[in-house]
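Section handout 9: paired folding examples.
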Amino acid sequence: MKVRQSQNNIPRNVIILALGITVLLGVFRLILFLVLVWVAALAFIIIYQYKLPTTTAANFVCLECATVHQQTHCPKCGSNLKKFYSRSNSYGI
């Protein structure tokens, strides 16, 4: 079975970039800038998450790779194992 490529994962890319900058600034002991990089990265991720379009359809999360989707099988790994996903109540994950 061919594994499909997932879509661009912007929050993951921001974290990787912030980690690289952290290592670079850590070498020169620029702690204030290091903290500012993480504050900016987390703020960007929070803003990005809230600007994503929300859907009213049922969402599922894959139990194999933790991908949230609406299909009968996971678009990332193809697994059929899933659990109901809800942000608004205590049911699901």
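Moving on to protein 2 of 2.
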Amino acid sequence: MSLARPLLALALAHLTGSLLRALPSLMRGRALREALVGPVTSPASALVAVALLHGASLGLAGAPLAVALVAALLVPLRTHEHEVFPAPERNSWVLAAALLLAILARPMVPTCWDEFVWLGKARFESEGFGAGVRAALDPSAHLMPPGYPTLWPAAAGWLALGADDLGALTAGASLLVFLTLVTFGERLERACAEVPRRPDFFLAVGVVLAAPLVLVHARTTYVDLPLGLLGAALFLEIASARPSAIVAASLATLLVGLKDEGAAHLLAAVVAGAFARPSPRTRPPHALLLAIATGTLALVTWQALVSAHGIGRDHGGFAPNLAWIASLPLLLVRHASEITSWGLFWPAVVAFAVAGRHDRRTRALLLALAVNLLCVFAMLVAGPPRVRAFAANGTLLNRVLVQLWPLAVALLLTSPPRGTREVRRPSLP
């Protein structure tokens, strides 16, 4: 019964998002069934609905964000283009089903420290829609951590249909992890179709299994993996030949609504995505511009609300320690080379990066990884001492690597084989 509510809610969110994505086609006179075929097969449709709910949960302050998302939704009417929905392959459905079973085959109770925090805050939604936001903006509530974005626990509560049931909340958050995985997979499958030689399906499965720590995170409701998946999905969306404005805008909104680090992932995705465009000298696509606009609007709205209500920030403070600049690379290498957590995943990423260094897509992915790492380094060097203590004690950098794993997977699977010349995709109007 705990699983029934989240599954029903996810189906409703997916149907709502599908109808919204089909709206431009319906307004052009296409039949409902024909207009819905593509959106229904796209897992990103559910995320469109979640992004709009996030705007609504912020109350009147979230109205501009909701308007920006609706504007992104209606872009196809202005450009006279149809949103592209590549048909997923049969193997993709098999892999998605296996992932769903693996994710749901876990105890439907908190099993790790952060799960108690996230799922505890998800209970607020049983008091009414947006109750989590109201509690986070109430100084007397003393939520931990203070000033933190509310989307993840709120979305888990929405998928529990407002039930104050721990099993339903855990299942809802687990389904959110699955949703981010398959959305990233959808974008990655399209990107793989654009490389000179498509990677083998079993190679893709092997890449997933090569990093044991990621499998652990996939079966928890920690937000590090979903954050990285959405950031990489946004990069792949912007870098594609026909990006979707509403998907890009929704991904950008979700990124900054999940965690403080979402702003860094947004920056990396838009900078590297713009660099990866097949014809960077042409006019930027609507998807890129709307991702920047909606992501910035979501970020500014939340930070303004936090400041207006006098809420402190958990990661606030400025206490630079320049001596840390020399020790950070060594710490990162020590974490990335830990065999039981990562196997040989990161050495393989380095080897593929060197081999594909002349390919524009590979260089763009390296740029995205670099921007993320630079933001982390800046936070550690200039931030409060306790953040550096987290890194030194081993509780931070591995989670950063989990966030970067999706970008590294995209690099492994889209990097052209050695000796392959870069294939330039034709620019589209």
